[in-house]
Design brief:
The chain has helices at residues 11-39, 42-61, 65-75, 87-95. It is mainly α. The two termini are 32 Å apart.
Length: 96
């Protein structure tokens, strides 16, 4: 099975890392914005806020990772283990 899906053993680790990044981002990014405001001039910060921070914050505020991942599972199809048809089935399907 791991020859067919070579990334499968790493999926749990990838999910754990993405979850940790999400939680850390929710805790660290709001104070980081305040630091940017303190270190930048008002004009630079207004430009940064308008073109970078607000679009990213708007996109991420309505993204729930659990809902996004469950939606991605719907794209996977009903049976991911079907990777080929036998010759007899292939000939029968061609005749249809």
């Amino acid at each position: 099975m791991f020859k067919l899906y070579p990334i499968l053993p790493w999926c749990f680790l990838i999910g754990a890392i993405l979850g940790a990044v999400w939680v850390i981002g929710e805790k660290v990014l709001p104070p980081l914005r305040q630091r940017f405001r303190a270190r930048m001039t008002e004009e630079k910060f207004a430009s940064f806020d308008r073109y970078v921070w607000n679009p990213v914050a708007t996109s991420l505020s309505c993204l729930n990772p659990a809902i996004a991942l469950s939606g991605a599972l719907n794209w996977a199809g009903n049976n991911n283990l079907v990777y080929g048809m036998s010759d007899s089935n292939d000939a029968a399907c061609r005749s249809l």
